[in-house]
Amino acid sequence: MSELRTLIISPNWIGDAVMAQPLLQLLRAAHPERPIDVLAPPAVAAVWRQAAEVDEVLETPFRHGALQLKQRWQYARLLRKRGYADAYILPNTIKYALIPWLAGIKQRVGYKGESRYGMINVMHHDEVPPRPMVAFYAALAKSPVTVQGPGLRAALPRPRLVVPPAQIAAVCERLAIDQSRPMLALAPGAEFGGAKRWPARHFAGLAQEVLKRDPTTQIALLGSPKDKEACAEVAAALPEGAAVFNLAGATSLPEAFALIARAAAVVANDSGLLHIASALNRPVLALYGPTDPDHAPPFSDLAASLSLRLDCAPCKQRECPLGHQDCMVKLTPDLAWQKLQPMLAR
Fold first, then answer.
1. Cα–Cα distance between 310 and 155 in angstroms, integer?
2. DSSP for 29-54?
3. Is 62 or 117 the better-scoring residue by pLDDT?
4. Which CATH number does the domain 165-344 belong to among 3.40.50.2000, 2.40.360.10, 3.40.50.2300, 3.40.50.620?
5. Three-state SS for 190?
6. Among 47, 99, 123, 189, whose Cα sits 20 to 30 Å from the Cα of 106?
7. Is the per-residue pLDDT at 1 higher than 50?
8. Rounded to whole angstroms, how far apart are CA atoms 142 and 138?
């Protein structure tokens, strides 16, 4: 290839990938002539295929957690032929910094991470306390010496993904979802751990309030195969005859994108699906317990973050270290309904 390109090495989590998307908006604005490729794990690649700034998505062939030095060297040789001017390494590990270094990409931008001196030659250092995730990634578009003040953060672009109408129509047809009726999407899961999960009974209680207001509302329960049990518990608690779609593990990630884009509103824990809903600019109710609602908030035009902000939070633990999970258990369906109801009334 004769034209110079930019390489982005994606984060390994869906939510982080979504929050890194504004970085690509800034890079495209700075170099509109330069194609942008994203190297991403297969589980995250679908996110980047919904980003308008991405010219090509390259899926990583590496096993999770393995160094695989020979395989990385071989892959770097392939990347060298593509002609990259620069690379932005978003994971903080040495493994991912090795690839653009071995590929001979001249400018390699990233955070210090695992002491990656030499492999990263435009090195950034995070603030203390750490800045919010969107600002964290977006800062890589600027020189490391650029001051990142509150005013600059406010001016950052928001995460933005695009789902074509045909993608929405296809999944609705496959799942027999009525496009003439409203749909509420609920995402009871969270990959990080059980502490981040609002109880399934609370999701059910909130859905019951929605159905009381409008019995024609369709309820779509979204998540991975790990969320089947929680989604089944929600579905079992809803009135007989309600249009409930338990889709945990039953959709691809692009189909989940399409369903979220179709939804009248989305209620989710601090998870990848929350950030997808935000990037699709859907009305979002975000539920936070052990994580900081200011660190990774939703950016939709219509969004609410709900957190009790207990003294023990944010503990950022996978499971509640005190054994009670009060930060989520005491966040009642009534509190959530107070936030969600005005969104549905629009």
1. 30
2. HH-TTS-EEEEE-HHHHHHHTT-TT-
3. 117
4. 3.40.50.2000
5. coil
6. 47
7. no
8. 8
